[in-house]
Specification:
Helices cover 72% and strands 0% of the residues. The protein is mainly α and 253 residues long.
Length: 253
């Protein structure tokens, strides 16, 4: 039976903003810069560049990264976040951990799992990440580990991530996908159920639900989930092609 696994790739989204940290007089300007970057990334880049020349340091560099991320320019965003992280480390600022995590997320979104792993290792090794930020960094490193052919290590990070971000449907989706790919169907069924409970209107979740049903020989379940994935997916989404091919393996009724 042909299966169409969902790749454990980074979602194309703006990386999470840094967690709350000690006050700094540059924060007010940073907040304005970030707001501009999210509303008008070109204007945000211009503001961040001016601020860098005026001594904005890693605050300006991180804002530049967010502007690039908003535009989907992932290599440039990753480089800006990494520069911010290195500068923050030099200044012994705990924000460096958040910047490394943002760099890792951007590297993943750009398809560079090797640099993503290095950035996320740095973020996690700092010991400064907690709660949601820690969970998301572990989740991203799991993605990088899967891309690097290390599913066992990825499972360790995914399990840890789920303890910190139990409400994140993406975490459950990726956990279910990894379980299916490693032959653990009971775990895959359990975790895709958690993902469906949180985000049944996500085409990616329905696609994987179909994959897992098909892997277990449940034709009716696979048909239902893949059909729902096709319905939910945008017209130009590759999910439409994937589900068409997946459904074609079953005889017409």
């Amino acid at each position: 039976m042909i299966l169409f696994p969902l790749a454990l790739a980074a979602a194309a989204q703006t990386p999470t903003k840094p967690a709350a940290l000690p006050a700094d007089p540059r924060e007010a300007r940073h907040d304005r810069c970030v707001a501009t970057a999210e509303r008008d990334p070109a204007a945000g880049r211009a503001e961040a560049s001016r601020w860098q020349l005026a001594g904005g340091g890693y605050f300006a560099q991180q804002c530049l990264g967010l502007a690039y991320a908003t535009e989907g320019k992932w290599p440039a965003a990753a480089a800006a976040f990494e520069q911010a992280a290195r500068a923050a480390e030099t200044g012994r600022d705990a924000r460096a951990a958040n910047y490394w995590a943002q760099a890792g997320n951007a590297y993943l979104a750009g398809g560079d799992a090797t640099h993503a792993r290095a950035a996320l290792d740095a973020a996690l090794a700092s010991g400064q990440l907690t709660g949601f930020a820690l969970g998301e960094a572990l989740l991203d490193r799991a993605r990088a580990l899967v891309a690097g052919g290390q599913p066992a290590a990825a499972r360790v990070d995914l399990d840890a991530a789920l303890t910190h971000v139990p409400s994140d449907p993406l975490a459950w989706l990726l956990s279910a996908t990894l379980a299916r790919r490693t032959g653990d169907l009971p775990r895959a069924k359990k975790d895709i159920g958690e993902a469906l409970a949180r985000s049944a209107d996500d085409a990616n979740v329905q696609l994987e639900a179909g994959n897992i049903a098909a892997a277990g020989g449940d034709e009716a379940g696979a048909r239902k989930a893949w059909s729902e994935a096709a319905r939910l997916a945008p017209p130009d989404s590759p999910i439409r092609t994937i589900t068409t091919r997946a459904l074609a393996q079953f005889p017409s009724r």
